Amino acid sequence: MLLWYYMFMAIKKTILVVEDDLALQEAIKLKLEKDGINVWTAVTGEEALSILKDKKPNLVWLDILLPKINGLEFLEIIRKDSDLKDLPVVVVSVSGGMEKVNQARSLGILDYIVKSEGSLDIIIKRVEAFLK
Hints:
- The protein has 6 helices and 5 strands.
- The chain is an alpha/beta fold.
- Strands 2-1-3-4-5 form a 5-stranded parallel beta sheet, sandwiched between helices.
- About 5% of the residues have low confidence.
């Protein structure tokens, strides 16, 4: 039975959600898990970096406005790390200014989604499309 569990977990896709709004983080987690996706969560960029030392998700869902190091600083750090430089990242943020969008794109993100552009269900479907 334990072997089946590990085989199943290896097949399932995993997203690391880096979001400091705990209520939103929990809603994202519940919806992704309902769709059969493993979810790890972090409130800060530092916490996310700590998780990435030991685990590698299939995708990172990244907010830009985070306490301590922000999402753009987080992106700069992982892009300089040989083990993390190719990690797929989708930015989902309330901050959609062109300067931030361009800076994030220059750091190799898959997409930049502004939270107000659609419902959480629509945003989740956009993010999940990158797991296929």
